[in-house]
Design goal:
The protein is an alpha+beta fold. It is built from five helices and ten strands. The longest helix is centred in the first third of the chain and has 25 residues. It is globular and about 60 Å long.
Length: 196
């Protein structure tokens, strides 16, 4: 009798994983409630706009940080992503390895092996793919902490514009060297804090 009751319990858990649509509707309903509450707050509180404006701009809230917060509390946005992720295995999950570093313009030049596969150093959203003067083909990722990281002089780019990318994923390929620039709030920052 105990064996059957355990198997029934396991079957119930499997059924909840197979029906992600109900979870999706709960998330949508929750987002609607938050938006309506915010609109009511703005309508009846005279200082509401100033409070929200001050909070958003002083704390420098970015899309990657909102995405991280949402995933932490509610899971994936689309209901079927969790089903796909459960059946897949991560193939490429590396750390940045380089032979030497030298200062280059507003950033650094990293010397790596020939045909080196560049990993992403921190999760974020791809905000630019194209050519930058003095940096060649460049990918810019806005990290969850608001830092823009430029990966310059790259080939065989593996991401698309506005993709959410995770730390350690394959970004692009470098031939002997590539450039990195770290920028926050319009200012270039030291690379030592990000490359350890």
């Amino acid at each position: 009798m105990e064996y059957k009751s355990v198997s029934k319990y396991l079957d119930k858990n499997n059924d909840s994983k197979k029906n992600p649509i109900s979870g999706f509707f709960i998330k949508v309903l929750f987002c609607i409630i938050i938006c309506l509450s915010l609109l009511v707050f703005l309508k009846y509180d005279k200082n509401g706009k100033q409070i929200i404006y001050k909070y958003l701009y002083e704390n420098n809230i970015t899309l990657p940080s909102i995405n991280e917060w949402y995933k932490k509390h509610f899971g994936d946005i689309l209901p079927f992503q969790s089903l796909v992720k459960d059946n897949t295995k991560l193939v490429f999950n590396e750390h940045l390895v380089y032979d030497n570093v030298s200062v280059y313009k507003n950033g650094i030049k990293l010397y790596v092996d020939k045909n080196y596969l560049i990993p992403i150093i921190e999760s974020g959203i791809v905000v630019f793919i194209g050519n930058k003067e003095d940096y060649g083909k460049t990918v810019i990722i806005e990290q969850t902490d608001g830092v823009l990281v430029w990966y310059g002089n790259v080939d065989n780019i593996n991401v698309s514009l506005y993709d959410y990318v995770s730390k350690g994923e394959y970004l692009a390929e470098a031939n002997d060297s590539f450039y990195m620039v770290f920028q926050k709030d319009g200012k270039y920052i030291k690379y030592e804090d990000y490359l350890k």
